[in-house]
Amino acid sequence: MAPRTIKVDALVVGGGIAGMQSALDLADQGYQVALVEKQPSIGGKMIELSKVFPTLDCCSCITTPKMSAVAHNSNIQLFTYCDIQSVDKQGDGRFVAQVIQKPRYVDIETCTACRQCEYACPIDLPHPFDQNLGVHRAIYVPFSTAVPQKALIDIDNCILCGKCERVCPVGCVDFTQQPEELAIEATAIVLATGFEITPTDAKAEYGGGKLLNVVNALTVERLLAPTGPYGHVLRPSDGKEPDSIAYIQCAGSRDKSLGVEYCSRICCMYAIKQSMLISGALPLADIAIYYMDIRTFGKGYDQFYQTAKAMGVQFIKGKVAKITEDENQNPIVRVELIDEGSQVVERQHDMVVLSVGMVSKYDPRTIYDVNVAGDGFVDTPLTNVSPCVTSRPGVFVSGSAAGPMDIVDSIVMAGAAAAEAAAYIQATGPNGHGGGRSIAAGEEKELAHA
Amino acid sequence: MTDKKEDTKNRAAMLKSLREKHKETVEKTQALLKHNQSIRKQIRQAMQSGPMTVPEVAEATGLPSDRVLWHVTAMKKYDLVREVGMSGEYYQYELAQKENQ
Amino acid sequence: MGQESNAGEPKVLILATLSGGYAGADSVGQAHAEYATNTYILPVVCPAMFPEEFYIESFERGIDAILVMFSGTDCPYKGGAERTAQIINKVYPMMKERGIDTRRLRLVAICTVCTKPFLKEVTQVNELLDEIGHVAAEIAAGPSVQAPAS
Amino acid sequence: MSNRVDPSLIKELKEYGAVNIEACFNCGNCTAICPLTDSKHSFPRNMIRLVQMGFRKRIMKTPDPWLCYYCGDCSDTCPREAEPAETMMALRRWLTAQYDRSGHGAKLYTSEKAVWKAILQYSMIPVILLLIFHGLKALGVPGLDSFEIVTDRVALNAFAPVFWVWAVVLIDFVLLGSRLVRNIVHMFQLVMGELGRKIPLRIYIQEFKTFLLHTITQRRWLDCGEDRKRWFKHLLLISGYATMLILIVGLLWWFQTDELYPLFHPQRLLGYYATVVLLYATGEALIGRLRKREQIHRFSHPSDWLFPAFIFAGTVTGILVHIFRYAGWPWPTYLMYVLHVMVMISMLDTEVGIGKWTHLFYRPLAMYLERVKERAAEEPAPELAPVGAD
Amino acid sequence: MPEKHDSKAAAKAKSSPKEEEVRIGAYTCYCGGNISDVVYCEKVAEALAKLPNVVVSRTDMSMCSDAGQAKIEEDIREHGVNRVVVGACAPSLHEQTFRGTVQRAGLNPFFYHHVGLREQDSWVHHDRVAATKKAIRLMSAGIAKARLLEPLEHIRLSAEKHALVIGGGIAGLRAARDISRRGLKVTLIERSPFLGGHMAQLESIFPTEEDARTVLHGLIEEVAADPNITLYTSSELTGVRGYVGDYQVQITQQSRGVDEDVAEEAMAACTLEVPDDYNYGLTQRKVIYKAYPGCYPPTPAVDWKNIPDGKLELKMNGKKIKLENKPKTIDVKVGAIVIATGFTPYEPRKGEYGYGELPEVVTMPQFIRLLAMAPKGEELVINEKPVRNIGFIHCVGSRQIDDVHEPQPDGEVNNYCSRVCCTATLHLANDLRHRFPDLNIFDVYEDIRTYGRGHEDYYIEASENRVVFLRFHGEEPPEVVASPDDDVSPVQIKLKDYLTWGEEVEVPADLIVLAVGIMPNPVDDLINLLKVSPGTDRFLLEVHPKLRPVETAVPGIVLAGTAQGPMTIQESCAAASAAAAKVSVLLSQGLVELEPYVARVDLDLCKGSGECVEVCAYEDAITLESMTIGGKEVKRAVVSPANCAGCGACVSACPNRAIDLQGWTLGQYQSMIEAIVAEIPAVEIES
Fold first, then answer.
1. If you average pLDDT over residues C141-145, what whole number do you get?
2. Do A324 and A301 belong together in one domain?
């Protein structure tokens, strides 16, 4: 059976903030866009965050409306829970992507996300969305603000007891679903495949991932998020409210011994942001940030850093060399206090946060045939004047797929990628130009998005 | 009536064949479920006596406190325990009504 | 002290332009700076729309002070700032006539990032209200016990 | 005091084997990972920084490089691959050269040509001496009767009569010893400075046990955190080396003999023990340096090769002398003996007081002086300000 | 005139067939804790439920999420809610979001009112009870307004498919090109006679090591050859009227001064010299000049700014020639405006780090020019003096601290990081090392911020290149002093070096380069003309750094490049492309929507006094027109919505209260004030 074919102007790969923004910027120009996301919901890494620097807006207040706008935009077709198998160029110069949509075992049309199935399911599993501190069941709605807001079954951790099916009021559970093949035909491709954080166990000196109270910064985002696993900032070893928290900067960046030489750009700011938020949640807690250089380079960022200093967050210059723990699982950091006479000290904290960096998560060469740079991210050969152009004509890159960057820079770059893709579609689309459905002056066009 | 019976039968057969197909993961998950159920039982028993903190439950059950925390978190999410204030630096939890009975 | 009538905290109405004071108040929020809770900020396109009676009626309804936070010379509307100033100037004699302390109405220019001036105004108006109390007392007393205007 | 930055020291230290010291961005990881540092002892970063700043005098005054045993943790975890451990190693070489006021040591560290020249010169000493004595005897100079080349059997003590050899060894030993003492005194002056004279002699005497302890056992090495194998190997090496030193310097009259002793004779047992240990330890060190697997062996300065290579060559030639002698081959014995002595003299003259050999003394001395300073600081003497590492 | 799609809202409102029952849905958002951490949201909801007309009162963790929006939609569809009030973040963030929600559920989008509970309540108050009471009052006021909401419709206007780009630097060029590539017309104006901006003054650029002018000219050539782009050099924006989709802009262009065919000759003949701004005043150039060899446009231009009376006499081929500046104006209609006015390097005060007092102290932009002019060879020679020790000082004019640094003329210190200087410095240091192997290079910094892709490599390389780094604390900036006469180096930097245990150290130097920060080009004229706002850092302000990072608060005006904040070339280009995308979104549809907040006349009350016309400052916004009412020929006020700015001046002017502002009526304000002073519904709020 031939796969269902979807014809669009642009295929956007990745439903994180960069992908969503690129898709919206293309769709709002009148182009047809297919947005393909690997996870069951769009939102990317950003939707996991609590609040965002330097404005301290609640993160979901920025992300969820964009997710909603993507879902409701009449020019965007959303494909979640999909894997792209291959991308080839056809004779007419258009790309065709072979996509497999994984079965959710839930009928997406009828599911109302009432979560009765979830309550009925007996299997509790660590929830990756909560950095495994929280739980989900074998059938679950990915998270409270997921788009689409629909349940799915984790078939690999299901005993097929059928309880969910019995309680479902609309009968949407369907164990017989099969993967669906799709072919997406597009003139341009925007890669917005994002990044991965440095694994917490990457550095043996930091406990190799075995110390329970040494957590990564994404975990703290979840602890701080109102929808987080505990609803409070508690440490994972025993649920204690921490009095003393240390941040270790460059725990996954600027370290040749880890094979990551570059700066991940976001860690200084998120550590400062989290410090401020923790100070708000736990006013008595002492917070220390061990750093090499504080890199608060963006608009309003240095002022943010000064505010944190004024709030009493301690900034200590020195790279933590080693973390051990005492018998109560309190982490102990060993560090040279560079600014304080160079003495070596061992300091005990209740919880230590590794300011992990950003690394490339996959090899884009295999599917998309674009070059990667030495840092593993998509190469942008014309990086100065055309920062979104890749080595392959018609394929553009958006957001942190082209190297570490923060949300502001990702959103700006997403706009730039949309501009590049639009220009490419304009120049090479069918009939010479104007692959997009550009609208004549005065012609009414439903503006479906918010 | 017969239709409904037929349906139930078909459904049971379908689930059974599926279980056969996913034998490996189903068995693995069943083992996990059993393990978790025994832990939950211990935790519930320990918590019969009233609100407790995670280290208290850990002490009473002999389970590692991080595991207790995870299970309490799970139970809280699905309304099986609820948070009832703090004791020192720890939150206290008690069994939700239906669990108490 | 203004406890003789209308118990409860005095109320400050802030008419803030979207392009100036309202955005400025938002910046104050962004900065998480604290100020008194008796402040009610209403967004306004341009305060030039409010006729003189509007202010008098507001005082009569029980608003104890009004801060008009407009954009001053940065007003995006032609003549908006001047027109607003003219109207406010006409309100003052009307207030006097009714025995209302003219310090209860202030026109100030607040820009989108004017956090410090915003806080200063709110602090000052509350200091004033601590001193002169509720407007209702003044209105009840009539023009004879008029407080000296500054 | 003028603290003027002088970037030339980095370049200089590279000649002493510092590998990538420029790359250091002063994060402090090395100092914090080092198991030997604490709130009082802070290195290697402080040393690297002094080098980057070019503060020569202050480096000369510090004993810190001697407190490091090169476990390599700092280099393994350095985020910039700046090889701090190699910098400490290079600083030990540099300091060794600085303690030697003659400048000879510096030359040998920084110029391979100078090393070859020195070896060539020193190794000629025994050859020339033998030629002179045998020549003079042939010319009929009296008093040289014991010099004789016997070819029908092995008669080493006739080829090179032991008391003559011993005399030469002792003379060289005194000369080298005085050089060593001069350098040690210099080091003492540098490290203790003004303080040296203020500290009561009593403390020096009471703490002298520290010196002996560290000389013999390298006790501090055990705090290094790494496994104890290297410490033990080194201890073994020292025991072998010390045995051989005593046999040659103190007991040569007994050790160099034409007698064929039974296998369990103490002369043979001691000799074998020292030989086996030296051969094993130096052989392993050399192979390690060739393979470059462990951090400590990844980089090698010529001076790292020299000392073990000398011992290795000395041991091998010694074994061959021994075999040839017991086999009863006169000529091979004599020639090998000359070669052996050439190696030993070269070694002593290029190492003692100026080469890597001197770490035998400098390292325990540094510990000793540190301890003395600590003790002095502990004493309730009001005129003494507490003194840290820097 | 653009085609107008006039609002029919006024007519509709009047002719609404029956007074439908007002059913209000009130929603109090937790804002992910931002509000609920201070305000007892449940109590607010409970209180609001007791108000008249409120049929639904709910809370949600985040109302703006899809699930939150779905609640509203459901209430509209299932519970007949026909007015919606959400109390959440500032209206500037999500008012549009919820209008969309309401519209999706089939309601007029203006049956929505947004109350800012976050920025104006929970974020500024700590007293939870008082903040909760205030929230109830603010929401009550919103609900009071909601009772009086009327259906409105956006004013739809056809949009000029044409954009104006202000600034011919890299960002302006990039934006112009990207807008054009999307099929729109562009007018690009540049203040100076030549394109390229500051990028033309650079040599090699990071992180690609490309030649700056080669890269720049690649783009300039594209722009020059682009038939969709009209370029005006020596031009400034001098007037603007209109609104998004239909801005009528006036451009004033100075004369180039000399005709193309004789320009080279005239340049050769010119003798009057002025400091060369291309070389930051380090050299002189003629007043008839080319910015640099190979500049675009290639024709020399007269530098009128340096000729006070706008007239220049010249002797050419023995003849006296008079040149005169005859500025001309050009009127263009555009739908959107891109501000790409760029930056200016921070100019240190006289005496700041010895600048202007010691000849050995220069800024980095100056040094780049000096280096480009320096003789080739193994040794660096600047101004004919050999340089053996060179010191760089970071954060000059950036990351300044109150009470430590002297403020700018406007009283502010530059407390921001200029983002590019660290990498630029190290890039330069490496370049120096490659060219001058024996040069001693010192780098005095606070934090090294080589954050960008490939930037850390410059730091690593600089270290390996034996650049000696010294670190100061911001509160204790280094000092630059002249050395004593017998010293080998003429100047030195003194600082407390925190890598050397905070010791005072001195760095000998023959040349000191100040890594100066980035300041926005002064654009007060544009700020006044376009009504855009600068932030406290003086850079132009975006609406929201994440939601709308390149848009200004003025519809149709977007930002590109360093006018918005410090950026690298790459970041400027990304921002410019993003701005182009926004312009395309706005204009490629050929129509724009304006908010319907315009004046509206109640013909029953209007007496034709004409006061409104008198007070209105906008051309053709209100006119008195003759019409027949009740058989009588009368004059009545008529509003032209496309021309009405919605300021409301007419509202207060009308003696008969016959004119009001749609969406912001006086009556609505009155009822809001009533709600504020009213007793709040009794709810028990625990403290």
1. 70
2. yes
What is the predicted pLDDT for the residue at A442? 32
ipTM over 0.90: no
Q: Does B82 touch chain A (CB under 8 A)?
A: no
CA separation for the pair A387, E577 (Å, rounded) = 9
CA–CA gap between residue A403 and residue C38 (Å, rounded): 48
- B/C Cβ contact: 3+ pairs below 8 Å: no
Cβ–Cβ gap A239/B25 under 8 Å: no
Nearest to E661 among C49, C52, C63 (CB): C49
Q: Verify that A251 and A241 share a domain, yes or no.
A: yes
Q: What is the CA radius of gyration of chain C?
A: 15
Q: Which residues contact D269 (CB under 8 A, 6 or more apart)?
A: none
How many independent structural domains does chain A possess? 2
Contacts of E503 in chain D (CB under 8 A): 3
d(CA B24, CA D327): 75
The β-bridge relationship of strands E246-253 and E235-243 is antiparallel
Spell E436-475 as b/e; 16+ CB within 10 A means b. beebbbbbbbbbbbbbbbbbbbbbbbbbbbbbbbbbbebe
The set of chains that have 3 or more CB pairs under 8 A with B is A
- Could you check whether E162-254+329-342+523-591 and E346-519 share the same CATH topology? yes
- Whether residue E93 and residue A57 make contact (CB cut-off 8 A), yes or no, is yes
Residue of D1, D2, D4, D5 best to disrupt the E interface, most CBs of E under 10 A: D5
The closest alpha carbon to A265, from A64, A413, A66, belongs to A413
Indicate which of B7, B35, B53, B73 best probes the interface with A, i.e. most A CBs within 10 Å of its own CB: B73
Of C8 and E503, the structure prediction assigns the larger pLDDT to E503
The residue ranking higher by pLDDT, E291 or B98, is E291
- C-alpha–C-alpha distance, residues D388 and D62, integer Å: 10
Domain span at residue C29? 12-145
List, for residues D167-206, the tens digit of each pLDDT value. 999 999 899 999 999 999 999 999 998 877 788 888 889 8
What's the pLDDT tens digit per position in E435-494?
A: 999 999 999 999 999 999 999 999 999 999 999 999 999 999 999 999 998 898 999 999
CB contact under 8 A, E32 and A51: yes
The token pair that represents E387 in the structure block: 């340089």
Give the pLDDT of residue E9: 39
- C-beta atoms of B11 and A165 within 8 A: yes
Domain encompassing residue D62: 8-99
Chain E nearest-CA distance from A326, in A, is 31
Tell me if D28 and A254 make a contact (CB, 8 A cut-off). Answer: no
Q: Encoding tokens for residue A305?
A: 């850093």
Range of the domain at A293: 198-358
Q: Is residue C41 part of a domain?
A: yes
Q: Which residues pair with C107 in a beta bridge?
A: C68
Inter-chain CB proximity E618 and C78 less than 8 Å: yes
The residues of chain E scoring below 50 in pLDDT are 1-17
The string of DSSP codes covering A325-391 is E-TT--EEEEEEETTTTTEEEEEE-SEEEE---EE--S-HHHHH---B-TTSSBP-TTTTT-TTB-S
- E346-519 — its CATH code? 3.50.50.60
